[in-house]
Specification:
The complex is a heterodimer of chains A (about 750) and B (about 280).
Chain A: E1 2-3, H1 12-18, E2 35-41, E3 47-53, H2 55-58, E4 63-67, E5 92-93, E6 99-105, H3 108-116, E7 119-124, E8 146-154, H4 157-162, E9 166-174, E10 186-191, E11 197-201, H5 206-217, E12 224-228, H6 244-254, E13 258-261, H7 264-270, E14 277-285, E15 291-303, H8 309-320, E16 329-338, H9 352-370, H10 374-381, H11 401-409, E17 425-437, E18 447-454, E19 460-464, H12 473-485, E20 492-496, H13 512-539, E21 546-549, E22 552-555, E23 558-562, H14 563-569, E24 577-582, E25 598-610, E26 616-626, H15 633-652, E27 658-659, E28 662-663, E29 681-686, H16 709-721, H17 732-746
Parallel strand pairs in A: 2-13, 11-12, 15-16, 19-20, 26-29
Antiparallel strand pairs in A: 1-29, 2-6, 3-5, 3-7, 4-6, 8-16, 9-14, 10-11, 10-13, 14-15, 17-25, 18-19, 18-24, 21-22, 22-23, 25-26, 27-28
Helix pairs in contact in A: 8-9, 9-10, 9-16, 12-13, 15-16
Chain B: E1 18-20, H1 25-35, E2 39-40, H2 46-53, E3 59-62, E4 73-76, E5 79-83, H3 88-93, H4 95-100, H5 104-108, H6 114-119, H7 122-127, H8 131-138, E6 142-147, E7 150-155, H9 156-162, E8 168-174, E9 181-188, E10 196-204, E11 209-215, E12 220-221, H10 223-230, H11 241-250, H12 256-275
Parallel strand pairs in B: 1-3, 2-3
Antiparallel strand pairs in B: 4-5, 5-8, 6-7, 6-8, 9-10, 10-11, 11-12
Helix pairs in contact in B: 10-11, 11-12
Classes of the chains: A alpha+beta (about 750), B alpha+beta (about 280).
Protein name (chain A): Xanthine dehydrogenase, molybdenum binding subunit apoprotein
Organism (chain A): Marinobacter salarius
InterPro entries (chain A): Ald_Oxase/Xan_DH_a/b (IPR000674), Ald_Oxase/Xan_DH_a/b_sf (IPR036856), Ald_Oxase/xanthine_DH-like (IPR016208), AldOxase/xan_DH_MoCoBD1 (IPR008274), AldOxase/xan_DH_MoCoBD2 (IPR046867), AldOxase/xan_DH_Mopterin-bd_sf (IPR037165)
Chain lengths: ~750, ~280
């Protein structure tokens, strides 16, 4: 089924975001007594801090507070997995975005002027800027620059390779991609006049951030409130704390609200990026194309601090095992190293799409060696829905992988494109597949809760801890609630992202939709019962004749009580229902590895390659998705298309290279993201075979769309030119040189 | 002359910049000279440059598009005269552009984005070696320049070599190029709103071919390739590639792959002007 945009599909807030009218946390410029904060960043990628003298800054006009490491009230460290990053550096800086001091002043201008007169003496240290040699360099933390090494093994790989008729081995490289959200990192910290702090900030997990912030600020958890305000994009880049610690310390010091909003330069310099991965992949199969053996040796550059690097490595390796395909034996290993090259961490796809790029390229390489259709090779290796996952775990697909492949094979994009009169543009079509699991996985604690109540004003109030950063969760929740209660959108208030409300866990790992659906399935029937009980008392009608509908309670097709009347005359506080549930994992007894709820995508790409310059235009993308039931069509479409555009950027233009630990791009005029003119025509198909009785019919699609885009584009480039690109982003110069070499050979 | 001290800009939140607003071009020249500060037209180049460097001038001399001959397009016996403060988007939609430079309107779609084209001026684009500079160079435009010594009209190429910091560009004149065959192409990093890697222009004036390029290696009239091509009877068949490569490499175009693309693009554009398409 093709999911098509419908007229009026765009929700109001989408237009507000596009037109810059949406109210973000960073727009709160008129809070009484508001001060503006600014953060002093390191001038060096790696140095000892010999002296930080703030005396001149403290005397500057308008300056209300200047803080350094000595002023951090609690733990001077942050990090979701490993708390290894100083809030404000004490004696050493490890990347050019490291924070050294922070200033609060009456205006941003004054705060930034004060930063200029903070005297810092550095003793530069050798910069660890090559991931390949990082382990031989002086350690940035502890005893070694090797942060993590992990390996997944299955069967006897050497023996399996020995039986292979065809083996392909290639080196792959993926870029350091930036999230490039519309709204850069920012928010405001507001003292609550009882010694605590309220944060209104763009972030991905209010509850988790509140815990970290309490430790940093030396406060009790109950003294920190985080309101995760709707933000202009996050994509993993706001998973870690950003400006909150500095804003919080300054707010406590001054007793005033402090707003910090990074400009684009500071965001580029300090923000988390996607892990660049360098990997060698070796894959072998028999003469019939059955994959027997697979080996991966990968190196991930995590930068100066761990952030979510270890979890990214795990997900990368999970995807490197080629989860869609039946492989007799594999040996998949990866190392995660510290360098002074910024900080890498969470980013839509979370390491998985880097691995999928290489895996799918390997399949094409095998098919070419066997002179076999790449789709046919995939068909004989795809798992069935009854088979376990690549790591032996029970998995749950929403459609047979071969069905997804068949739909991809039937895509209209395989029809030859009309070529230009001068044959300047070489066209080609290619495809790739990808699998993606929902949830944090690998046995990590993963729970989420929500709440429904009737407000005093007679509104059906839904509360979740998730953040809205453009995916429009509120609309998805509203759709589900309307479907279950028979009410209309106007009856409902959705409140998201308040750490005082229910803890839903982080807005990441494509987990929100799954938990929202599960929690609503639990709380709404109970809420309905409570409301009916109260309505029965108030109306005198039997409970079993009452049902919820638009605007209120109905009996016999007619409204007998409005929600407002119910709230006024009944006991709305008694309608509150809370629930929390564990994220679905494999049934008891199964090993807690990988992820249970699995999604698939096949992306078919058509490209045109300029014979004269080597540049690539992606003209069409056709995605066949198997990701369960669609509960909110605009959200589904937006997630798949939006993620695919990010994949397009990763494939064709986006990278943040470094030299001596310094990023070579500092703004969006140098860091090249796709514009609308670069975005191809896209079609999204939905394949959903989940039965109506399925316990988990809804899956999260926040990351699925990015999974197979890059390998599909490279496959299409190969179809157009005969040249396979294995290092991303695609270098037009490389392609041109190869095209010229081909022409010389032919002539 | 109004001389208000500009307030802190609530949007950019930058330090106050004193914007000098002269009443006449000659006053603009004297202010620029006196304070050694830059002129500002659309500001689309200055703003990101200063933001990147975190180095803002204390003063700017604001130019006024209402000054005579500074804005708009007119044609006369000399050709087509374009005011320097004409915005890129005005240029793109002007009927005289369609008459004199038919491919330019479409090409301008690939210069910056709509917002920048609405503010950015053709004079500013020429002055910083932007996308239009290769076209202007290939067309042998003459620029009208004011400075402390008065007014003068001279070839663009000469002005770019000799210009002084207080030179104020009033406009430029394109020779009557109706009937000439013009082909131009931009190679960027993406389809739109991209820094120029290279913009290549090929013009056939009915007698000779002219070639010019601007971008990563700088603005350059491709003299040797022009000679090579013009000495051959068949424009499309000459192997001009090696000559172009040498010329580009000798003038600072370091990227061998980019030179390779330019060689092939030149061949394509030469075919277009040869065929008249």
């Amino acid at each position: 089924m093709e999911l098509k945009p419908q007229p009026g599909m765009a929700e109001t807030s989408v237009l507000e975001r596009i037109e810059g009218r949406f109210g973000y946390a960073t727009d709160q410029q008129h809070l009484p007594g508001l001060l503006h904060g600014a953060i002093l960043r390191s001038r060096h990628a790696h140095a000892r801090l010999l002296r930080v003298d703030t005396s001149r800054a403290r005397l500057m006009s308008g300056v209300r507070a200047v803080v350094t490491a000595a002023d951090v009230p609690g733990l001077n460290r942050l990090g979701i997995v490993v708390r290894d990053q100083p809030v404000l550096c004490e004696d050493r800086v490890r990347y050019e975005g490291d924070a050294i001091a922070a200033v609060a002043a009456d205006t941003v201008e004054q705060a930034r002027a004060a930063l200029e007169v903070i005297d810092v003496d550095y003793a530069p240290l050798a910069v660890v800027d090559q991931a390949e040699t990082a382990e031989q360099m002086s350690p940035l933390h502890g005893e070694s620059n090797l942060l993590a090494r992990e390996a997944f093994e299955r069967g006897d790989t050497d023996a399996a390779f020995a039986r292979c008729a065809v083996i392909v081995e290639h080196h792959y490289q993926t870029p350091r991609q930036m999230h490039a959200f519309m709204e850069t990192e920012g928010g405001v910290a507001i003292p609550d006049n009882n010694g605590g702090v309220i944060f209104r900030v763009g972030c991905q997990s209010g509850h988790r951030d509140a815990e970290q912030l309490a430790d940093i600020l030396g406060l009790k958890p109950s003294q920190v409130t985080v309101e995760a305000t709707p933000t202009g994009g996050a994509f993993g880049g706001k998973d870690e704390l950003t400006i909150q610690p500095a804003a919080g310390i300054l707010a406590l010091q001054t007793g005033s609200p402090v707003l910090i909003h990074l400009d684009r330069f500071e965001s580029c310099r300090t923000g988390i990026k996607r892990h660049p991965v360098s990997m060698i992949m070796t894959t072998g199969c028999d003469r019939q194309g059955r994959i027997l053996a697979h080996r991966v040796d990968a190196l991930l550059d995590t930068g100066a601090y761990a952030s979510l690097g270890p979890a990214v490595l795990e997900n990368f390796l999970d995807h490197a095992t080629a989860p869609l395909y039946r492989i007799e034996a594999y040996s998949v290993s990866g190392r995660l190293v510290y360098t002074n090259n910024g900080v890498s961490g969470a980013f839509r796809g979370f390491g998985g799409n880097q691995a999928t790029f290489a895996v799918e390229s390997q399949l094409d390489a095998l098919a070419e060696k066997l002179a076999m259709c790449p789709l046919a090779l995939r068909r004989i290796n795809l798992r069935t829905v009854d088979e376990p996952g690549s790591r032996g775990q029970v998995v749950r697909w929403s459609a047979p992988p071969t069905d997804v492949l068949a739909e991809a094979g039937a895509s209209p994009l395989w029809a030859p494109a009309v070529s230009d009169a001068r044959r300047r543009w070489l066209t080609g079509t290619g495809m790739a597949m990808g699998a993606q699991g929902n949830g944090l996985g690998d046995g990590l604690p993963d729970r989420g809760g929500g709440r429904v109540s009737l407000s005093a004003e007679g509104r059906i109030r839904l509360e979740f801890g998730f953040s809205d950063y453009g995916q429009n969760l509120a609309e998805a929740i509203t759709c589900l609630v309307c479907e279950t209660l028979g009410c209309v959108a106007g009856d409902i208030d959705v409140v998201l992202g308040n750490s005082r409300g229910p803890d839903s866990g982080p807005t990441s790992a494509s987990r929100s939709s799954v938990l929202i659906h599960g929690v609503l399935a639990d709380i709404l029937p109970r809420w309905k019962d409570r409301v009916r009980d109260q309505a029965a008392v108030l109306t005198g009608l039997p409970c079993d004749q009452l049902y919820s509908g638009p605007g209120g309670l109905f009996a016999g097709g007619r409204q007998v009580l409005s929600y407002r009347e119910l709230a006024e005359k009944g006991q709305p506080e008694q309608t509150r229902v809370d629930a929390s549930q564990a994220f679905p994992v494999a049934p008891e007894g199964n090993q807690l590895v990988g992820r249970y709820l699995q999604l698939q995508i096949a992306t078919v790409a058509r490209v045109a390659v300029d014979r004269l310059t080597g540049r690539v235009r992606v003209t069409d993308l056709h995605h066949i998705t198997a990701a369960g039931r669609v509960i909110y069509p605009p959200g589904y479409l937006g997630q798949i298309e939006g993620a695919a555009i990010m994949g397009l950027g990763m494939a064709l233009s986006e990278d943040m290279p470094t030299r001596q630990g310094r990023y070579l791009a500092d703004n969006l005029d140098q860091y090249i993201i796709p514009t609308l003119q670069d975005v191809p025509d896209q079609r999204v198909d939905v394949l959903d075979n989940t039965p109506t009785t399925d316990r988990f019919p809804v899956r999260g699609v926040g990351e699925l769309g990015i999974e197979a885009v890059a390998p599909a584009i490279c496959s299409a480039i190969e179809a157009a030119t005969g040249i396979r690109v294995r290092h991303l982003p695609v270098d037009a110069g490389y392609l041109l040189a190869e095209l010229c070499a081909q022409e010389e050979t032919c002539s | 002359m109004s001389d208000p001290l500009s307030e802190l800009n609530p949007v950019t939140e930058r330090r106050a910049i004193r914007v000098l607003r002269p009443d006449s071009p000659s006053e603009a020249v004297s202010l620029a000279r006196r304070f050694k500060v830059p002129y500002m037209a659309g500001g689309t180049w200055l703003q990101p440059t200063h933001e990147r460097d975190q180095c803002w001038p204390e003063k700017l001399v604001a130019l006024n598009a209402a000054w005579p001959a500074f804005r708009g397009l007119e044609d006369d016996s000399r050709g087509l005269t374009v005011g320097a403060l004409t915005s890129l988007s005005e240029m793109a939609r002007h009927p005289l552009v369609r008459e004199y430079l038919p491919p330019l309107a479409l090409f301008l779609n690939r210069v910056a984005g709509p917002g920048v084209r609405a503010l950015g001026t053709v004079g500013g684009n020429l002055a910083v070696g932007g996308d239009l500079s290769a076209l202007a160079m290939a067309l042998d435009v003459r620029v009208d320049v004011l400075n402390r010594t008065g007014e003068r009209t001279l070839p663009l190429s000469r002005w770019l070599r000799e210009r002084a910091s207080d030179d104020l560009l009033r406009g430029f004149t394109i020779p009557d190029c109706r009937g000439w065959r013009i082909s131009l192409e931009k190679l960027g990093y993406r389809e739109r709103f991209s820094p120029t890697r290279a913009t290549l222009v090929c013009v056939h004036d009915g007698d000779r071919v002219r070639l010019a390029v601007c971008g990563e290696g700088g603005l350059l009239r491709l003299v040797a390739p022009e000679t090579f091509v013009n000495d051959r009877a068949d424009l499309a068949s000459g192997d001009v590639g090696a000559v172009i490569d040498r010329e580009l490499a000798a003038h600072g175009w370091q990227d061998a792959h980019l030179r390779m693309a330019l060689r092939r693009m030149t061949t394509g554009l030469l075919s277009e002007v040869a065929l008249g398409t």
